[in-house]
Amino acid sequence: MMLTQRFPVGEPTTVDTLLAELRAAPRLGVGDERVCDFLLEFSRRLLRLAVARQFPELASLGFFLRRAEIIRALDSIAERPPGRRRVPRGLVLHFPPANVDTIFVYSWALSALAGNANLIRISPRSGGAAERVLQVLNETLAGADPILAATQRMVTYDRDDATTARLSAACDLRVIWGGDASVTQVRRHALSPLARDVVFPDRSSFAAVNLATWSTATEQERLAAVDGFANDLYWFDQAACSSPRTLFWIGDSALRDAAEEEFVELLGRVVTARGWSVDASMAVEKHVATYGLAVEGAASRIRFAGNAIASVDLADPGLMPRHWLGAGTLAHAQVATLLDLVPLVTRKDQTLTEFGFSPAELDTFVVALGGQGIDRIVPFGSALSFAAVWDGYDLLREFTRLTTVAV
Hints:
- With 407 residues, the protein is α/β, with parallel strands linked by helices.
- The protein has 2 domains: 3-202 and 391-404, Aldehyde Dehydrogenase, Chain A, domain 1 (3-Layer(aba) Sandwich); 204-379, 3-Layer(aba) Sandwich (Aldehyde Dehydrogenase, Chain A, domain 2), CATH 3.40.309.10.
- It has helices spanning 15-24, 33-46, 49-54, 57-64, 67-75, 103-113, 128-141, 146-151, 161-170, 180-187, 211-216, 219-234, 256-274, 280-296, 359-369, 395-398, and strands at 3-7, 9-13, 84-88, 91-95, 117-121, 152-156, 173-177, 196-200, 204-210, 244-250, 299-305, 309-314, 329-335, 349-355, 376-379, 389-390, 393-394, 400-404.
- It starts with a strand and ends with a strand.
- The model has no long low-confidence stretch (mean pLDDT 93).
């Protein structure tokens, strides 16, 4: 099995050659300036309008890699008592998903900041944003310290158990993104006794609106909320683990119908203003999926606003869908209080995107959950904003280990 070298771009190579080159490469340190400089230049290139306009999700990636964000991330692990030193884990092997084109960069960048050598398997099915990212990475490499090319590698190969097994046996940490099936598939391949996995399997997410806050918000505040929510809903075709699939209306049921009608109308205005569209094949998928909910008794009403928006009123809040129904499909349900959601939450639930709740209300909700689900709560517009703490993992800490010195 030959591996296609995507970053740095090069001739096809073998597993043996690739691993030998990575083992022979010089070592990096946690927060290595050469890595920081590379990421900052990469960020500047991403934020140029020509790139961000074509793939708006790359702007979020560019912001994530700004100097202030890098400093903040490194500061989070900088404080240490005497006699403790954070050091890199070694070789980190990443298996990112094909359906979220940019996630591999977040994972890789944090691991590189932690001083690790990295090997990322880019799926042959990755889309245009991934190709653009690889192009910008290679352009940035031209002015970078040679240690970046020596220690950071991104390759593509078709699914091959022998190749995955050999790479897995060689790594010190394996990061697996994707569905449950992908995680299970990769985990069949043994790690060395000192290595470990960090996994990101199938997750689902939902949103909540405080009806009392919505009813007293200004028209501008409501439009701004829906504008942010549109990003949460449409980026990555609503297929990301943190994309909301159900919107819960929390509060007085008498306020719900008017609020929902206005919300969907504003969402349509935002989608039209941005020029977003959903093609006919996706629209067919949405019809099949939503009417399937009706057949199952989960939906009491279904409405379509062109191809872009499908709204499903759930027959019961406990029937919220956790599977993908197609881009721009939103289930609606109503409960009296945020705490009424607690019995509905499962460990599979990752992100709650919210509008109109106080920090105290959200904290009370988290305490009531008792760890049974929800790893992050963010305001509308931030569902897809990656953070160094993800799925409950503090990634910079996961990508390093501690060496202690006792004297």
